[in-house]
């Protein structure tokens, strides 16, 4: 598999035992080629942060990993299961999603369910846990993200930051082996960004494997093992945060960083 | 010249026991018809947004046909027309229930479609991303929210269908209007009797509105 992993020395760790491997993945939205020959591996326990301008294809990339976006060619392996082009993955799709958690920009909590039931729904229906078992786990997770006293409320009664922490707890309740974050703080008021990043930091410290799309460059530098820069559907450059942020090699990366790091 | 605009309250009250004999039929046709229509509406509404055109096309045909023709024509067709095809008579009550079910079913299909399509895409994605299967995502995430949004439109349809049952007096179902016509034929108290009939319909439809608004308010907590 070494021959496929391109242009970086930092992928060595990823090659040791990748939990995610994208192999020449291509995706088109109509005439727009949003993912072009994407090769990317993520090792167990690795934190990969994906950066790039809006519309560069970075969200599409992680949405492909749990099959929310179909792709047209190439293959994606996640935790030993293979996703194939054109949404034809069948059973392995649900198997992948069961092991991969995702946090969305818009939280996407279920407004008709209490906070606790938001967290317990999937463990009960997918894992077959009893209500007591699921409730106990939910209460532990909600405490961990600092929402324990709100378990009986409904999503709309919580602030954005609280909702996003519930969304994190909800994903963790399935005991995922990989967590995907699609701009988790982009819809938040500035004063709430910190609490969500804190919860994510804790997850990093626990050794969770994570793929994070974010515009929070300070956070990226702090937690990432590797930063991947995506431009117009291609991985232009990747490397450890120090290298990528301080000595970007590619002019596209330099131009992007010059814009976002100014403020 | 002398006018007599006298409204005879006694005559109105006297007609009530006879009119009330029609109430069970009105309620039976309305509620059985709507219950079946709701099931029909769910089936065709979901087919309408189904994954293949082999589901979508029959649903569109059904919806357009039953939404685009009058209930009166539908019930006359079922009661007088279908027997010649089937080779046997159809009970008037059955014909009435069938007409309400099919007609309301067409409208409810569109209500179901609108309700389901109104749920944000992110809800489905969140359900799927947690490992729920597509049917589980529909059942536990999409449908409960869609149903809640459908309540006002379903209430509307319920009221329309209840009133539509008054047309079935033409096929001889002994519902409210039919009972009234029979009573008036003997007493010539049209003013009082139709007034009472209108009140009875209003009582039914207002009860339904009230029940639904309570349901809706209860639902708003989520």
Defining traits:
heterodimer; A: 263 residues; alpha/beta; 10 strands; 24% strand; globular; disordered N terminus; B: 222 residues; mainly alpha
Question: What's the SSE blueprint?
Answer:
The complex is a heterodimer of chains A (263) and B (222).
Chain A: H1 12-16, E1 18-29, E2 32-43, E3 47-51, H2 58-65, E4 73-78, E5 81-83, H3 91-99, E6 100-103, H4 115-125, H5 131-144, H6 160-172, E7 178-182, H7 190-205, E8 210-213, H8 217-223, E9 226-231, E10 234-239, H9 241-246, H10 251-260
Parallel strand pairs in A: 3-8, 3-9, 6-7, 7-8
Antiparallel strand pairs in A: 1-2, 1-4, 4-5, 9-10
Chain B: H1 9-20, H2 23-48, H3 53-67, H4 71-86, H5 92-117, H6 121-129, H7 134-164, H8 176-187, H9 190-219
Helix pairs in contact in B: 1-8, 1-9, 2-3, 2-5, 3-5, 4-5, 5-7, 6-7, 7-9, 8-9
Description:
- The complex is a heterodimer of chains A (263) and B (222).
- With 263 residues, chain A is of the alpha/beta class.
- Helices cover 38% and strands 24% of the residues of chain A.
- Chain A has ten helices and ten strands.
- Chain A has a six-stranded mixed β-sheet, sandwiched between helices. A four-stranded antiparallel β-sheet of chain A has the order 2-1-4-5.
- In chain A, a hairpin with a 2-residue loop joins strand 9 (226-231) and strand 10 (234-239).
- The longest helix of chain A has 16 residues, at 190-205.
- Chain A is globular, with a radius of gyration of 18 Å.
- The relative contact order of chain A is 0.17.
- Chain B has 222 residues and is mainly alpha-helical.
- Chain B is built from nine helices and no strands.
- In chain B, helix 1 (9-20) crosses helix 9 (190-219) and helix 4 crosses helix 5 (92-117).
- The longest helix of chain B has 31 residues, at 134-164.
- In chain B, 38% of the residues are buried.
- The model of chain B has no long low-confidence stretch (mean pLDDT 94).
- The chains are: A alpha/beta (263), B mainly alpha (222).
- Chain A binds chain B through residues 66-68, 94, 97-102, 104, 106, 108-113, 121-122, 125-126, 154, 167, 170-171, 174, 180, and chain B through 120, 122-123, 125-133, 136, 140-141, 144-145, 148, 221-222.
